[in-house]
Amino acid sequence: MRHLLIFFSLITLFSCRETKKEASTSENTSEHIRYAKGFNIEYHENYKIVKVLQPWKGENKSINYVLYDNEKPENIEGIFIKTPIKSIVCLSLTHLAFIEKLNEVNSIKGIAGCNYVSSEAIKEKINANIIQEVGQHEVFNYEILVNIAPDIVMAYGIDQSSTAKLNKFASLGLTTVLNAEYMELHPLGMAEWIKFAAAFYNKEQLADSIFKHIETEYLSVKKTVADSKEQPTVFTGMPWNGAWHVPGGASFQAQFLKDAGANYIWSDNDEERSIVKSKEIIIDEALDADFWLNVNAFNSLAEIIAQDAVLANFAAVKNQQVYNNNLKVNAAMGNDYWESGVVNPHIILKDLIAIFHPTKIEHQLYYYKRLEN
Q1: Which among 29, 149, 182, 363 has the fewest CB atoms less than 10 Å away?
Q2: Same-domain pairing of 231 and 184
């Protein structure tokens, strides 16, 4: 009997050690995050760590958000947030798109730039004063923010000057979460940040399902032009004060054009953001391009030519092959392309393929429109 008790005691001790060993291990979801390069998630027994790897360009110090459901974990460095969150203030319209996809519109209590919102469901809550305006253009109403007292303020960083905003929020007792989806270099990488947002609601399974659909649709429509021998040339943008900002060849915009079977005339550039060229250089390099896209807020060819008569010399203007991504714009010039587009890269890609290769796809333009005289 004594030997049996010792035997079972050893078995129990061994089992406890094995259980403890299993509990201490973590699952890093980096292998499940296929396109996004700016964040990862580690799962532990009673908490998870959401890490933003680069909050903004030039800032290489990562940020850890330690998310827990019950007891706050110890001996871990980071910003602690109890989940699931119940309330949030969003400082970017792209954040709204993620949250709406996750069916968590009711958690939104404040927005920076309410008049620019495109989502009908969110506008209803704004009109009913359920969602409040907290400021615009980096000027915030701190009194309203404090009165809302959200579980988190989802913000974004631009450069080192953003630390002043973050410090101000912290001094008011507000917990800020930085979302850096805009820094991704692939449209699917941007969309995959829905998994980042979902972690704060404990809705990772739903986010995985949503993203899988987006990815499948994107890759499927991409295949329709993968073997196309004809690749029309394209350029983008409009001049501003003599300078012309165009997407770098390594940017997500350039990736869109590549996947849509177009030849972006500056695709050999390795810049991840935008590059600046003079109007004279643009005219020289893009004069004969087949298509011209994303011409700011212009709605007709006549408006473009009125801005600068020289622009009438582009082949794309002469052939009426100018398209703008402002089909869905509200009265305040809020553009849904920059709101819901982040979770609809597959729809944007369909638009582009319908523009460049209309015989390859049956699709009614959703974000883009063709400009006429």
Answers
A1: 149
A2: no
